[in-house]
Amino acid sequence: MVGERRAVRGKAGVRTRVTATAVVVVGLVLVVAAAVMVWFVDCALAAQAADGASLRAEQIADRGVVHGSTIVVADPEEEFVQVLEASQVIASSANVAGQKPLATPAPENTVRLQVPNLAGPFIAASAQGQGANGAQLVVVGVNIDDVAEARKVVAIALLVGVPLVLVVVGLVTWRTVGRTLRPVERIREEVERISSRELGRRVPAAVHDDEIGRLATTMNRMLDRLERSQERRRRFVADAAHELRSPVASIRQQAEVAAAHPETTSVDELALRVLSEDERLQGLVEDLLLLARMDERAPEREEVDLDDIVLAEAERLRGTTSIVLDTRGVSAGRILGDRASLERVVRNLLDNAARHARERVAIGVAQLDGHVVLAVEDDGPGIDPADRERALERFVRLDGARDRRTGGAGLGLSIVRDVTAAHGGSVELADGALGGLRVRIALPAAT
């Protein structure tokens, strides 16, 4: 049963559900309001008739009533009078003569009743009087057949009016919701046409700045992001394929030459060349995998001492280069992040600085305004300010680093940028105090 109800709800559109809900809610409100109105009309007219009966009873009681007298009423079909002493009728109007007490309401109360031989319901009120033989109770009844008629007329009017109102509410709601959802349907149709090859298309922008207008704007922004992401991915794949082709082609070329002319090389020379190209290929693949992980998911977070990583990488680099590494500016700095990717960032920065430095590389770590700041600068040629933003892009080699064997694949600084951004930090390239490039990254400090 639950599945059937869900299936029915699934088939009914938003327009139908909203219209049905509006009709049901308004219908319930109108039914309750109609019942209250009928009750109020009945009570108001009955109270008015009761007031008239009470006033008439007081008038008769003030004059006093003689035993056996007949009390004159204006309309025998609309009014009756009985005067009681000790629960016995001592006088009455002619239309109820000889009848037993019809009602004995207290002076402050009223009672509804049917009178034999008289048409229509009556409402009776009483008043205390004083007769010759003691206290008297004057009971006056007034015909309230017009109250019933009025109640019936109101009920019929509501019985006809409520369905008409519901029809109007349904039509207006159906039309309004349809007009409101029309832009949504156009957005849906346009999104349905958009494929991975047509991300340049956009959904129609709404005229009004409402929820649907903001939905269209958000959809277009999302399509912009998807288009940029797809373009970036295509460019990344193309560049990666181009970079991977070079070492693969080099390995194949050397193997073919060695196979065709074995006298031109030895096994040891061939192995060294192949291992060199394989090492370059492995580094490129690792860089690509790291960038792919950065694109797919956020890095894991743990407390990492950035100063320990910097000092360890500096010690590693001292064993492979004659460049002077100045680590006197390294102080304590703890952040939350992925240790492996942060080690890669520091390694890339130091290797890049050492590759371009003439004699010296300075490294500093410090805490500043809730961030841990890592600065690496060299005394090399630096980067022209116009090229600094481009230097952070993937597969970009500037004029001084175009050779793949010395300049790498152009992924070093882009890995620094992407890993830093994934950790909520920022990267800045500027002129250093040593005359070369200064790379400054700021990462949120661990709290």
What is the secondary structure topology, with strand pairs?
Blueprint: H1 2-11, H2 14-63, E1 70-71, E2 79-85, E3 88-93, E4 111-114, E5 121-131, E6 134-143, H3 145-193, H4 211-260, H5 267-296, E7 302-305, H6 306-318, E8 324-330, E9 334-337, H7 339-356, E10 360-368, E11 371-378, H8 388-391, H9 404-407, H10 412-422, E12 426-431, E13 437-444
Parallel strand pairs: 1-3, 8-10
Antiparallel strand pairs: 2-3, 2-6, 4-5, 5-6, 7-9, 10-11, 11-13, 12-13
Helix pairs in contact: 2-3, 4-5, 5-10, 6-7, 7-10
Tell me about this structure.
There is one protein chain. Helix 5 (267-296) runs parallel beside helix 10 (412-422), helix 6 packs across helix 7 (339-356) and helix 7 (339-356) packs antiparallel against helix 10. The protein starts with a helix and ends with a strand. With 447 residues, it is an alpha+beta fold. Residues 1-10 and 400-407 have low confidence and may be disordered. A hairpin with a 2-residue loop joins strand 10 and strand 11 (371-378). The chain has three domains: 1-193, no CATH class; 205-297, Signal transduction histidine kinase, dimerisation/phosphotransfer (DHp) domain (Helix Hairpins, Orthogonal Bundle), CATH 1.10.287.130; 299-444, Histidine kinase-like ATPase, C-terminal domain (Heat Shock Protein 90). Helix content is 53%, strand content 19%. The strands form three sheets. Strands 1-3-2-6-5-4 form a six-stranded mixed β-sheet. A five-stranded mixed β-sheet has the order 8-10-11-13-12. Strands 7-9 form a two-stranded antiparallel sheet. The longest helix has 50 residues, at 14-63.
